């Protein structure tokens, strides 16, 4: 048992500090891609930051875990966390390209992750990577967690894209209903980045398979936590295939929200 009260079995070695953790959500079928992503961390990480791989009960084999730990440097801690997803029946059947596991992934990163004990009790920042995320080099000049902490940054991303309208049906309307119920108006960031020329939704999103964040910002009861609860209760991640990217983009874009 570590000092945080959360029991983690670390491969290679235990973390030397708890400023930040690199997180993946992966499946056994993604092992090749995951291994290549971990190899890029081995090559280009400036500091040996801990890595935690979340999974839905199919990465429990000790041989697989040892092999992935060996892919990393011996000074990079590696842990595995088995998570359970909510039982859902109302799934967006019209999106054959996105099976149940994809909806679970969106639910995990949009709603569940900031409330996991690793981020409520142990680590301050998280760096989300997917199994197909890679550092391409050269080695990082700065440690990203140190940089975020020194600059007092809450969120960082690498690029912006435009989402497909069919995957955010009802999300924009829900967002404005949420603001109206709290007697809030959209921030300037929402007006400039999320609102189209004709005052509709711009569909602009942070491409978040590479994002860094202070986990506590998603638990901020003054605005963001309430928005995430609204999304969770609406079940749109499962019924409409809302992605974690537009959900988080709207949350971050609220910025300073002002009373009406």
Automatic annotation (TrEMBL):
Q: Which GO terms describe its biological process?
A: cell wall mannoprotein biosynthetic process; protein N-linked glycosylation
Protein's name in the database: Uncharacterized protein
Per its UniProt record, what PANTHER family does this chain match?
Answer: ALPHA-1,2 MANNOSYLTRANSFERASE KTR1
Q: Which GO terms describe its cellular component?
A: Golgi apparatus; membrane
User: Pfam families under this entry?
Assistant: Glyco_transf_15 (PF01793)
Say which species the protein is native to. Answer: Rotaria sordida
Q: Does the keyword Transferase apply?
A: yes
Query: What keywords were assigned to this record?
Result: Transferase
Q: Which family does it belong to?
A: Belongs to the glycosyltransferase 15 family.
Q: Which domain of life is it from?
A: Eukaryota
Q: Which GO terms describe its molecular function?
A: alpha-1,2-mannosyltransferase activity
């Amino acid at each position: 048992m570590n000092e945080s009260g959360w029991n983690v079995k670390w491969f290679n070695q235990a973390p030397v500090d708890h400023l930040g953790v690199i997180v993946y959500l992966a499946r056994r079928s993604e092992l090749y891609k995951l291994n290549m992503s971990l190899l890029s961390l081995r090559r280009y990480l400036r500091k040996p930051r801990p890595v935690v791989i979340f999974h839905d009960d199919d990465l429990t084999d000790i041989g697989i875990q040892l092999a992935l730990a060996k892919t990393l440097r011996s000074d990079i801690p590696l842990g595995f966390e088995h998570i359970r997803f909510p039982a859902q029946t109302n799934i967006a059947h019209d999106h054959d390209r996105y099976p149940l596991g994809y909806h679970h992934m969106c639910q995990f990163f949009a709603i569940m992750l900031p409330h996991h004990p690793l981020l409520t009790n142990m680590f301050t920042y998280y760096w989300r990577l997917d199994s197909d995320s890679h550092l391409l080099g050269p080695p990082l000049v700065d440690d990203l967690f140190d940089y975020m902490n020194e600059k007092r940054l809450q969120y960082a991303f690498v690029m912006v894209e435009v989402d497909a309208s069919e995957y955010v049906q009802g999300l924009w309307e829900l967002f404005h209903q949420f603001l109206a119920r709290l007697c809030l108006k959209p921030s300037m960031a929402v007006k400039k980045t999320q609102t189209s020329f004709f005052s509709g939704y711009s569909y602009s999103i942070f491409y978040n398979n590479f994002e860094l964040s202070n986990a506590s910002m998603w638990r901020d009861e003054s605005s963001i936590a309430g928005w995430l609860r609204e999304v969770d209760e609406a079940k749109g991640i499962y019924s409409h295939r809302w992605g974690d990217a537009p959900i988080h983009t709207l949350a971050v874009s609220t910025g300073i929200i002002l009373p009406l």
